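Quick note —
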Amino acid sequence: MAGATNWFDQGGANYARYRPNYPDALAQALTELAPDRRLAVDVGCGNGQFTQLLAAHFDAVIGLDPSADQIAHAAPDARIVYRCAPAEALAVEDGTANLITAAQAAHWFDLPTFYAEAQRIAAPGAAIALVSYGVARLDPGPINDRLARFHDLDVGPFWPAERHMVENGYADMAFPFPPLSVPALAIRRDWNAHQLLGYVGTWSAVRRAREAGQEQKLTDFAADLIDLWGDPEQARAISWPISVRAGTQ
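Predicted structure written out below.
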């Protein structure tokens, strides 16, 4: 039975399985900001989900991440070169990048150093974009309310301090580049209760809550969600608003 599953002890494989990927429309919009399509650089690329979207639009893409483990699990693509490198020391030649992106990663960077590196590798007229997505939303009602309460209150104290930067779409983050406009976009999925719980199980706040001995809060939330959902196999619309701080070199 689904109710007996421990959705909050699934291991690292669930990150790739349940984390929602960005829509191709975002990659298209960012591509249109670039002066040409020779090279995109995706910084803090993780296992390459967004990097692969960019590869459909550029002649070549370089994906950079400080974690060798993440790079090792990135899906191979003939158009992508993955390199283990931090945002503060980009392993890219000077003046070659036409688009520089950081998806759900910039809040971990030493921003002044990263910006200096971005300026170093940027080709004339290059675009830079810091991308994030906000809190998951369902249709207004008891399920959405319970999810919001779990996010804000039950595991709220366990979110890292940087989380607020993501939730406000990097709006308060220093960004020393002339701004470029990107259309409003969202990630959209039709998920059942099991898939939503799998996603929630990837939250860093959930991991920290478990480590702090707050397993009961997690178990109670899973039970409440299943009860409110009705048929747990029924798919419901879920969306995450996308925020982009984009500018030009």
